[in-house]
Amino acid sequence: MSDRFIYLDHAATTALDPRVLDAMIPYFTIEYGNASSIYTLGRHAMQAIDRSREDVAELLHCRPTEVAFVGCGSESDNLAIKGMAFASQKKGKHLITSSIEHHAVLHTCQYLERFGFKTTYLPVDEYGCVNPDDVARSITEQTVLVSVMYANNEVGTIEPIAEIGHICRAKKVPFHVDAVQAGGALPLDVAALNVDLLSLSAHKFYGPKGMGILYVRQGMRILPQLQGGSQERGRRAGTENVAGIVGTATALRLAQEELPQVTLRITVLRNRLIEGILTIPRSRLTGHPTHRLPNNASFCFEGVEGESILLNLDLLGVAASTGSACTSGSVDPSHVLIALGLPPQWSHGSLRLTLGKENTEQDVDAVITMLPGIIEKLRSLAL
Ligand code: PLP
Q1: Could you identify the atom of ligand 1 that is nearest to the CA of residue 152?
Q2: Which end of the chain is more exposed for a tag (fewer CB within 10 A), N or C?
Q3: d(Cα 290, Cα 328) in Å, to the nearest integer?
Q4: In sequence order, what E strands does the chain have?
Q5: Contact 8, 318 (CB under 8 A)
Q6: Is the distance from the beta carbon of residue 78 to the nearest atom of ligand 1 less than 6 Å?
Q7: Distance, CA of 59 to CA of 256 (rounded, Å)
């Protein structure tokens, strides 16, 4: 067992940054007003929301009126896709997405298929890249939305968003981007990315859980998915989570301000991790070799099961993740690993290590030291 707990699952969630907590606390205890109330306490809450919205707008290079605060990344994806689909169904009922999206996108498209929508699921290459030409070829007169993720949550591949956005803009088809994994890792200039809708989740960048952002470009009409009050300019009913909103804006500012230094440091750690782990026999990197999230190191090991690797790492004090999950007694690789075309003897043994700003070289070296023994042990047990 290593001396300390080593957390290498930052794509799953992150700890709240203490500076974010400090910013949030007054809005739980002192400034607890309802932002819809017209007396001073309520106005303070509304002012805090307005300031947060302005902060987020500055970071996304958009207008404050284009920023909606919602309940999580999944809700942001749902609101973008259902909201746009239901608002545009008179024009057509065709959606385009990729086959490696998060379930918040894929299951939303499948849900819309019950209402007569048809979805084109674009293939990806062996690295998980969507080909922009496939997007161009798939757009028809009926297409009301294209949704492609900024970076994949399992294998870390960064998609050619600006290029896809350019194609959608030329064909006048709204473009949604699930940027949940990119919030703390990549630049988020919505104008440079040519996106119309963009989803973020605060708990992925050291913000609070249960908070999301949806950027909606001016002129895009989406149907709200929650009925009630007129909060968030009628896009999302419900009393605002003021502390959560303040925390989200604070976390996004810190993440984007610290991005250059954190990226430099984390990329070095990630490359060290990849180099060390690929010395294990019959191992391979999944996702794009260079065009990947700076914190993502994901692998497959032939002839082992991902969940067994995780349990063994856990015993040694390391938290990681796998895309190969045990369902009803057999190991099923995720839809992402299947879309990458990995053969089953490889895709069953996937491991995702995602670094965060508190990880050190010692953490990386500890994992590089312990993993070969774990893989060897599991392979010998499988014989
Ligand atoms: N989209 C992607 C790419 C994700 O990785 C996740 C969460 O892991 C989500 C959406 C959902 O975000 P949330 O957990 O805030 O609902």
Answers
A1: 3
A2: C
A3: 36
A4: 6-7, 67-70, 94-98, 118-122, 143-147, 175-178, 197-201, 212-216, 283-285, 296-301, 318-319, 324-327, 330-333, 350-354
A5: yes
A6: no
A7: 7
- Residues carrying an active site annotation: 326
- Amino acid 304 reads V
Nearest one of 30, 4, 35, 33 to 240, comparing CA atoms: 35
Question: Which atom of ligand 1 has the smallest separation from the CA of 153?
Answer: 5
282 C-alpha to center of ligand 1: Å?
Answer: 31
How many A from CA of 153 to the centre of ligand 1? 8
- By most ligand atoms within 8 Å of CB, the mutation choice from 102, 157, 321 for ligand 1 is 102
Dihedral of CA atoms 84, 88, 92, 94 in degrees, nearest 10, equals 0
Quick check: pTM over 0.85?
yes
Could you give the C-alpha distances from 11 to 124, 128, 294, 306, 330, in angstroms and in order? 21, 17, 11, 17, 25
Element (H, E) at 41: helix 40-60
Instruction: State if residue 149 touches ligand 1 by the CB under 6 angstroms criterion.
Output: yes
* H helix count then E strand count, the chain: 12, 14
Cα 230 to Cα 211: distance, rounded to the nearest angstrom: 18
* Predicted confidence pLDDT, tens digits, the chain (383 residues): 556 899 999 999 999 999 999 999 999 999 999 999 999 999 999 999 999 999 999 999 999 999 999 999 999 999 999 999 999 999 999 999 999 999 999 999 999 999 999 999 999 999 999 999 999 999 999 999 999 999 999 999 999 999 999 999 999 999 999 999 999 999 999 999 999 999 999 999 999 999 999 999 999 999 999 999 999 999 999 999 999 999 999 999 999 999 999 999 999 999 999 999 999 999 999 999 999 999 999 999 999 999 999 999 999 999 999 987 666 666 788 999 999 999 999 999 999 999 999 999 999 999 999 999 999 999 999 87
